[in-house]
Amino acid sequence: MDSSEGWDHIVVGGGLAGCVVASRLKEYQPSARILVIEAGPDVSHNKEILQFQSLQFLGGQFDWAYKTLPQKHCDGREVDIPAGRALGGGSIINGCAWLRGSRADFDSWADLVGDRRWSYDGQLPYFKKTEKWYNDELADQHGHDGKFDIESPVSTNRLYPLAGITEQAWLSPSPGNDMNAGTNLGIGQLNENRRDGARQVAPLVYSLEDVTVLRDTMVGSILLSKEGADDEPKATGVRLADGTEIHGKQVIVSAGAYRAPQILMHSGLGPKEVLEKQGIETVLDASEVGQNFTDHVMMRMNWELKDPAQGYAIDFQKPNPLFSEPQFAKGAPASYVASAAVPRDGLEAAIAKDEGGKADPEHPLLKREFAMMETMVLYLAVPPLTPDGLHISSFLMAMKPTSRGTVTIASKDPADPPLLDPNYLATEVDKYVWRHSLRQAAKLMTGDTTVLGRDVVAGETPFGGFEPLTTDVSDEDLDKRVRGQGTSTYHGAGSCSMGSVVDTDLRFKGVQNLRVVDASAIPIAIGAHIQAAVYALAEQAAVIISQG
Ligand SMILES: Cc1cc2nc3c(=O)[nH]c(=O)nc-3n(C[C@H](O)[C@H](O)[C@H](O)COP(=O)(O)OP(=O)(O)OC[C@H]3O[C@@H](n4cnc5c(N)ncnc54)[C@H](O)[C@@H]3O)c2cc1C
């Protein structure tokens, strides 16, 4: 079929969500004509990608390699934000961490949009559709015949020598937690969506066999028609960056949190003042497009071992026989992920400072208890060091930021990158969470209350001219550290939020036949890595769309 013919559904962006929506719509509506248009290539059979164990493709040809605008609260730094540029989107280059987030996250999403389909219980059937879980524990929480094989260090027999000692450091509040069963407060196995260690990419797991895919093809804008003066605009197709028009009954934008707002703005759907500045005719003054943009801030730290001869850390120069066993190539060199809340009084004080007056107990962050900071300990040194057998490392990720930023445009040219301003660390809440959590990290890694701190770790090996992290560090030094070293966790979301830009059926408000289905529609900060939530969102969206 000529791709310019009338399609039932045109999916813009064949990323993680786009593949799910296209594949499921074809399954639910077998006679529907579905077109996916993806800016990047199809590399889903590339063996390097499938077998790949880390994030080596960052900055390469399958990465849009964005940079933020200078971050006001991060010493003016421009922070790198990678994003997948290929059929499969983020699933081609991401870290494969599989963490659902908590009941509290999804219930607050449902409260915000006033629709229980987006609560934890509302999303649970869709989480299950995505999973082929590896054991029968908490069976009511897991899918066993869903799309992705999920693996853990234990299910793949990766028994790291430091596992018990790292777990001991986080025994409170909830050891042995299943981080994908409704609560993520505590410590549990680091699960990954891998099959026997291999990456599983969205376009292979969600078959696109009977869907037409245009790859290496950039969409510039959405075609909109408006017949009478009072009529709502209607999406009638898309215009490619080279000017070609493709017509269809419905357009589903799945270009991700960075590009979805850009495509909408290039179509005349966005804040009027932004459109006017770029000489774009306003079809609908949609002031919320590109607002509410959020990302998780991450910090990485290397910790020197007291006795490297114990063989706790991977050494690229002198491989330890244990880590050379084949099972250790089946996942990230980590056993656990630990997530913690912060003290309520500190949180209340920070909220009061941000919002003025006394914190309202109904404030979304106080109404439920959330995992505010996630920690992973990796059994190897991370940049600027190379794995040297002398260091382990930890990654801290602040999962419930209250800072919100914007995605906007610099020009009318779809080839130009969007302007990304996540506005990291703008709020007192975010600063407080980091201060508290970095002190906790110092206590766990260097204090005498844990075996890790007492017997295993000698101290931090900082980089960038900072002093090693200790338990008696000042607030000022902690603020300086995170300002200077916080990076993206690559979890951009919220820039076409449900409730403001799209309704709870993912329809763009004020335009017919147009939907947005990707991370940009998530209206809150999910308290975990977000791919599982994006897959579940897309699964539920496909059901909703197929029902008309
Ligand atoms: C390096 C990295 C590591 C990550 N690690 C993890 C992890 O371990 N665990 C986790 O849960 N999450 C992780 N994530 C996040 C996760 O991959 C993303 O949240 C997810 O991919 C978002 O899905 P999406 O469908 O919204 O967007 P994407 O997957 O980014 O898909 C958008 C697609 O649209 C295409 N596109 C954009 N503009 C156009 C256009 N104009 N025309 C045509 N096509 C277009 C893009 O090329 C892309 O393929 C990581 C992300 C990155 C980048």
From TrEMBL:
Keywords assigned by UniProt, alphabetized: FAD, Flavoprotein
Transmembrane helix keyword on record: no
InterPro entries membership: FAD/NAD-bd_sf (IPR036188), GMC_OxRdtase (IPR012132), GMC_OxRdtase_N (IPR000172), GMC_OxRtase_C (IPR007867)
Domain (Glucose-methanol-choline oxidoreductase N-terminal): residue spans on this chain: 84-107
Statement: the UniProt record of this protein carries the keyword Flavoprotein: yes
Family: Belongs to the GMC oxidoreductase family.
The protein's name: Glucose dehydrogenase
Gene source species: Apiospora rasikravindrae
